[in-house]
Amino acid sequence: MQDLADIRQRINQIDEQISALFLERMEVAADVAEYKRATGKPVFDRTRERENIARAAERVPFSLASYAATLESVLMEASREAQYERLGLKGHATQEVAVALGEQPALFPQQAYVACQGVEGAYQQIACDRMFKRAQISYFNSFDGVFRAVEQGFCQFGVVPIENSTAGSVNRVYDLMMRHDFHIVRTCRLKVDHCLLAKPGTTLDDIKVIYSHEQAINQCANYLANLTGARVHVCENTAIASQRVAASDKDDVAAIASRACAELYGLEILDQAIQDQQNNYTRFACITKDLTIYPGADRTSLMAVVSNEPGSLYKVLGRFYALGVNLIKLESRPIPDRDFEFMFYFDVECPATAPEFPALLNSLSDGCEELRYLGSYSEVL
Q: Which of 107, 227, 279, 326 has its CB surrounded by the most CB atoms within 10 Å?
């Protein structure tokens, strides 16, 4: 039996040879870049990359084919990024970011016209006040109305919920992201404490009907399961639920909403902090039409469609790993009218000014069928 130290020494020697060959390969890639500069040929040649990857898989035993293909893919990606950098080429998304950084405002706005869904007292309004010192808010009946108000220039900004730590992503908002033209400029993480609100004089035993938003209902599922005899009805917004209870001529109705709604609509708090998880947070996104990157932006959101074939998403995720970019959220939603095709949403932890950021955008542009840059921003806690 061979000594382990000797075996490892052989591996180290092979690794040194691989490193030397890698450097030699990158030097040749520089020559390729100069040839493409002179001839005007594009850097990315999908056909050649596909053929090279297939040949790499064929050169090794079947059990190692997938690893060889992955290694070849990474090598070609490194070569491609080096060529982009040498030629000073930028993809559309990278150019957008460069322009936005060149026009970066000094501060995030202190006052603005903002669109929110619901009515006064909604959690979106609370999140809006967290992000802006003096916001003039216009309320809309739906999240779609908020996106349209921003897209059509009626409001400069909009605030929408995107995910909750208990109930998960707000799917309706993610679906609307596919349909509207917008950019994210800030996010806010808001601690959510739900209260059971009713008209003055109403007791917990009196309650027969409870109104609230679907997400709030899901977040209070255990509490509601113990309220025997009470029917739960979904409505557009927790604040609208409070409004409905205050305007009702019945004394057996209640709403799940914020403490602020009790004060706004003259209701009493029958029970408080009724959510299943006390560590209950909702993230809200502040959206605007034109791309703007404010100081301190250290997160980025992207939307992408990958080809419907084995390994496509794996290859995309490999690009984050290769560049050392931390992926903090991955969400998928079916694309309407396209069978078994999905839009993927990525939240990444990477400043827009980081040197690896343009490399990431260029790499994803080549590796995805569609790529949309949603913006870079910071999060308010």
A: 227
Percent of the chain with pLDDT over 70: 99
State yes or no: is 282 an active-site residue: yes
**Lowest-pLDDT range, 50-54, 145-149, 364-368?**
364-368
Confidence of residue 312 (pLDDT cuts 50, 70, 90): confident
What is the sign of the dihedral through the CA atoms of 55, 316, 176 and 165? Answer: positive
284 is catalytic: yes
CB 64 within 8 A of CB 57: no
Give me the pLDDT at residue 50, please.
86
Q: Quick one: pLDDT at residue 91?
A: 67
CA dist 260 and 265 (Å) reads: 9
Average pLDDT over residues 324-329: 91
Sequence length of the chain is 381
In terms of Cα–Cα distance, which of 87, 135, 84, 140 is closest to 108?
135
Catalytic residue among 94, 166, 238, 282: 282
